[in-house]
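User: Could you write out the 3D structure of this protein bound to zinc ion? I've included everything you need below.
Assistant: Certainly. Input first, then the structure.
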Amino acid sequence: MLNRIDLADIHAPKRLAGMVLDMLGPLDGAVPVVQVAEALDISAVHIDRFDGFEGMLLTDRRRTDGVILANTRRGDRRARFTVAHELGHFLMERHVPSDEGGFRCMPSDMHEKSKAERHYRQEAEANRFAIELLAPAHLAVPLLVDPPDLRQALSMRDLLDLSLEACVRRQIELADQTLAAIWSHEGRVRHPVRSRAFPFLTCQKGHALPKETAGFRAIQKGERGITRMTETSAIAWTNNPEIEIWEQTRIGKNGHAVTLLWADMPDEGDDNGESHRELGMPTFR
Ligand SMILES: [Zn+2]
């Protein structure tokens, strides 16, 4: 049974999510996040099209009550993540509301990983709670077999009812291989994400995708679907000729695409694989 009293004084987002999952009992698919929120003293969840924010938690500092608003403008699956994010703010009672009425979270907050300032740290913690709750490792990892493939993120999306973007991020984080992904729109980088072990990426937000890459050619062709994982120019992506890089692109709707990059790093020692996995973990907790 879900019970907020047993969750009091837990401030680590991953542990908190684990406790909620334990209370919920065995699951073989998507976490019923709205029911979970309502069982943990959220009095209402409104999922609808809103203007000016991605999610909102109406509450006070003492969390006597909570109402969650989640925007569907970017899809119902993103809204599920947003509900979990706001529930994270509600349960992590040290989080200080952004204004008198509660928390107002913007689209950029949903990607926040920095822990430099309180606001960013709180957003990063709410995101960590949300992904650990909605894509727990015990459900996500079995999908991530060798070799890596964007279809594994698609399977995760369908199993866990999450956005593909959240699932690709989770794949990068949890897979044994050294991965990165580049989201693009009409051949321009929207944002790159890489595990910490992945080498520096030369293309940054706003850049055109390098012409020497298979992703560029696939996007030029414009056929929707998923390309084969192929070896590609390491210099084009990383400026480092020592690494072997493989890439695969999924062309979606309206010029949107995501390219998965897989780096086969030069061997440096015995425990190489293990240390990569360790380095691939997120820096915040
Ligand atoms: Zn937030």
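Strands lie at 42-48, 55-59, 66-71, 102-105, 178-185, 188-194, 225-226, 230-232, 244-251, 256-264.
User: Perfect, thank you.
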